[in-house]
Design brief:
Chain A: Ferredoxins are iron-sulfur proteins that transfer electrons in a wide variety of metabolic reactions. Chain A: GO terms for molecular function: 3 iron, 4 sulfur cluster binding; electron transfer activity; iron ion binding. The complex is a heterodimer of chains A (62) and B (401). In chain A, 39% of the residues are buried. Chain A starts with a strand and ends with a strand. With 62 residues, chain A is of the alpha+beta class. Helix content of chain A is 23%, strand content 23%. Chain B has one domain: Cytochrome p450 (Orthogonal Bundle), CATH 1.10.630.10. Chain B has 15 helices and ten strands. The chains are: A alpha+beta (62), B alpha+beta (401).
């Protein structure tokens, strides 16, 4: 699994930082900061991607 | 290939705003197909979206405009001021599209990050405690809306924005009146002007004497005109207390009617954050909007929505779609977090969502702890529900303990 985060799409909702704080944070302007480029595939990670209002978090096989 | 317009059902004659059993979406909303024709308040015929996936795709798609002046509304015609001025004025980014919207929102996200809201937790807990004192001192029975559900978010948003709470009479009444479904043109004008004037006074005061608050920070940023700051502050002020207030009161009402769920929270208060998400989904107080207008022909769920047509998303219905959660009619405070649409979706998703989550968690937690024997002081049918308002909830909630 490979995670792809499209940072320009981010609107700073912060839901990923709330749900998967070990993978995502927000910068001073609220925009996503990826803490782990190659994170473990957890339910929280999938949930963070599913709720992102900008659909900025995606997964690719491999 | 889809076959647009071949399976269209009967036109819904008006948005079904009255709820069943106090909090459930009207039965008819749940029985509709994912997209149905709807007659809007101004008489135009557009579409009503009740399906979860269809709602998300409409709210995400930039081909659907959030500019209200372009279209029609679900429960009341668009006020003349909005039509004629093509919006609510500078800074009012809830009804703007990108890139104009993004500029304003981009200046504000930093004030509402998860980290900022965590830092506010102790202060919010203090505010909750002081309101609980007031509720207790009011004596039994007491109105939970007046003594708790309204003052908690009102105090919080006033403090954040730098609006003196003692002056709340200057905006609470105007804000409440603007959210009536049957507001007349004259009332809308009067209350809208009152709100502008009130915020103008606040901004002037911040120029003279800046504080450690959001309006002062916007003034100091030098990036916005006072008219723009006024639009932003009005939006945050109204959105900041009308929504949380109703979630606090309706959430309490609902827990009181589901004693098994209330007991689970009392036993294990680590469930509170999940309960907040579930109550947001289950209650969906944003009753009859958002509304979007198609800027070009767009297909959604096999239906061709032609340019210029309005689309109303029913948040209460979409949040009860079995495509979202299993057994959606069941309130389950331990349910795993869902992708509910209570805060919307797409670029307009609620800016203050983590503030709301923080306030609701502190509010429910504080209330359950302080009043182990909290109960309704009247029969449920005697609680005056906000069927006449844009945001659903209870006008009053008489409780005892």
């Amino acid at each position: 699994m490979k995670m792809l985060v499209d940072i320009p799409k981010c609107i700073g909702s912060g839901q990923c930082a709330l749900i998967a704080p070990d993978v995502f944070d927000q910068d001073d302007n609220g925009i996503v900061v990826v803490l782990r480029e190659d994170p473990q595939d957890t339910p929280e990670l999938r949930e963070a991607a599913a709720v992102c209002p900008a659909a900025a978090i995606e997964f690719a096989a491999g | 290939m889809s076959t647009p317009l071949t399976t269209v059902h009967e036109t819904v004659p008006g948005y079904p705003r009255v709820r069943d059993d106090y909090v459930d979406p009207a039965r008819v909303l749940l029985d509709l197909p994912a997209i149905s024709p709807l007659t809007f308040a101004g008489g135009s015929v557009g579409w009503l979206v009740t399906g979860f996936h269809e709602a998300r795709s409409v709210l995400y798609d930039p081909r659907f405009s959030a500019e209200r002046w372009r279209g029609d509304d679900t429960v009341r015609p668009i006020p003349r001021r909005i039509r004629e001025n093509r919006g609510l004025g500078p800074g009012s980014f809830l009804s703007m599209d990108a890139p104009e919207h993004d500029r304003y929102r981009g200046l504000l996200t930093k004030f509402f990050t998860v980290r900022r809201m965590r830092a506010l937790e102790p202060r919010i807990a203090e505010i909750v405690e002081s309101c609980l004192d007031d509720l207790e001192n009011a004596g039994r029975p007491a109105d939970l809306v007046r003594h708790f559900a309204l003052p908690v978010p009102s105090l919080v948003i006033c403090e954040m924005l730098g609006v003196p709470y003692e002056q709340r009479a200057g905006f609470q009444r105007a804000s409440a009146r603007l959210l009536r479904q049957n507001v007349t043109e004259a009332e809308f004008e009067e209350n809208f002007s009152a709100l502008i004037a009130f915020v103008d006074d606040t901004i002037r005061a911040k120029h003279a004497e800046p504080g450690d608050d959001l309006i002062s920070a916007l003034v100091a940023s030098g990036e916005l005109t006072d008219t723009e700051i006024n639009g932003i502050a009005r939006l945050l002020l109204v959105a900041g207390h009308e929504t949380t207030m109703n979630m606090l009161s309706l959430g309490t009402f609902t827990l009181l009617r589901h004693p098994d769920q209330m007991a689970r929270l009392r036993e294990d208060d680590t469930l509170v954050p999940l309960a907040v998400e579930e109550l947001l989904r289950y209650l969906s107080i944003v009753n009859a909007f958002p509304v979007r207008v198609a800027l070009e022909d767009v297909e959604v769920g096999g239906i061709l929505i032609t340019a210029g047509t309005c689309v109303a998303v029913s948040v209460p219905a979409a949040n009860r779609d079995p495509e979202l959660v299993e057994d959606p009619a069941r309130l389950d405070v331990g349910r795993s977090r869902s992708s509910h649409l209570a805060f919307g979706y797409g670029i307009h998703q609620c800016l203050g969502q983590h503030l709301a989550r923080t306030e609701l968690a502190a509010g429910y937690r504080g209330l359950l702890k302080r009043f182990p024997d909290l109960r309704l002081a009247v029969a449920p049918e005697d609680v005056p529900m906000r069927s006449d308002m844009i945001i659903y909830g209870a006008h009053e909630l008489p409780v005892t303990w």
